[in-house]
Design goal:
By secondary structure, the protein is an alpha+beta fold. The protein contains 8 helices and 11 strands. Belongs to the DHNA family.
Length: about 270
């Protein structure tokens, strides 16, 4: 990915833990690296195909001056998210905020915070076998798509499938969607579980009936194993009710552990 760099933009603002910092203010030095594809701009010499770094600097200056935060970490997060939302061509951003007048009572050149944030692609499985199944799935899609930090970019057809695991329950309605999101995996999981809770999802019996089931299948090419989250989903390559709808919207995507495409995995589990 190409990069546009903004180096050491000086802004006078009022961020800090101490009350006097919020009143008197001090200098902050901000640098940003914008990860963006500049190929089309370079070939056409058209600014509209790139990022106007003058506008980026004005955005940084305004957000930094117009707000008061205790922590540099908060300012960095607000700047990164704001720039990613304001300038859609930015795929990823690195923000460095330096505080050369940090009041610590010791000789210090600068204190700083540096973060990297960007857009990610996640694939989510949807399922329901209680109540108005289609409405549960539709509501989940609409809720995700209504968020400022996420948008649904593709949605599969809904597929009626027999129950998995516990067989004495109603058929499921299953689907899959692609999500363009700023949320890291753990925060995305929290959002999905919140949507499930709003649909009155209860976790009583493993593989039992549920109003709504939302699972992260893939997240970029990430491999993650924690006590609460496994990416890729550990059962996805065995489940036709996951792979069939996923293959509708992302047949070319490769499983980051198995190395095979969704389409190839789908053919292995369906006759």
């Amino acid at each position: 990915m190409d990069k546009i760099r903004i180096k050491k933009l000086e802004v006078f603002a009022k961020h800090g833990v101490f009350p006097e910092e919020n009143v008197l203010g001090q200098k902050f030095v901000i640098s940003a690296t914008l990860h963006v594809n500049t190929r089309q701009a370079g070939c056409t010499d058209d600014l509209a195909q790139s990022i106007n770094y003058g506008e980026v600097c004005q955005f940084i200056k305004a957000l930094t001056e117009d707000n008061v935060f205790k922590l540099l970490e908060t300012l960095a997060e607000k700047l990164a998210q704001g720039l990613l939302l304001q300038f859609p061509k930015i795929a990823k951003i690195d923000i460095l905020i330096e505080k050369p007048w940090a009041p610590i009572g010791l000789p210090l050149e600068t204190a700083s915070v540096e973060i990297s944030r960007g857009w990610h692609t996640a694939y989510i499985a949807l399922g329901s076998n209680m109540g108005d199944k289609k409405d549960h799935l539709d509501t989940a899609v609409k809720t995700l798509n209504s968020r400022e930090d996420s948008s649904v970019t593709a949605i599969s057809d809904y597929l009626v499938t027999p129950p998995y695991g516990v067989l004495n329950q109603d058929d499921f309605l299953n689907g899959a969607l692609a999500l363009h999101t700023l949320l890291p995996p753990e925060e995305l999981l929290d959002v999905l579980q919140g949507i499930e809770a709003n649909a009155h999802r209860e976790r009583i019996i493993r593989w039992g009936p549920r109003t709504l089931d939302l699972d992260i299948l893939l997240y970029d090419d990430l491999v993650l194993d924690t006590p609460t989250l496994h990416i890729p989903h550990i059962e996805m390559h065995r489940r036709d009710f996951v792979l069939i709808p996923l293959a509708q919207i992302a047949p070319w995507v490769r499983h980051p552990v198995l190395g095979e495409t969704v389409e190839a995995l789908c053919k292995q589990v369906t006759p």
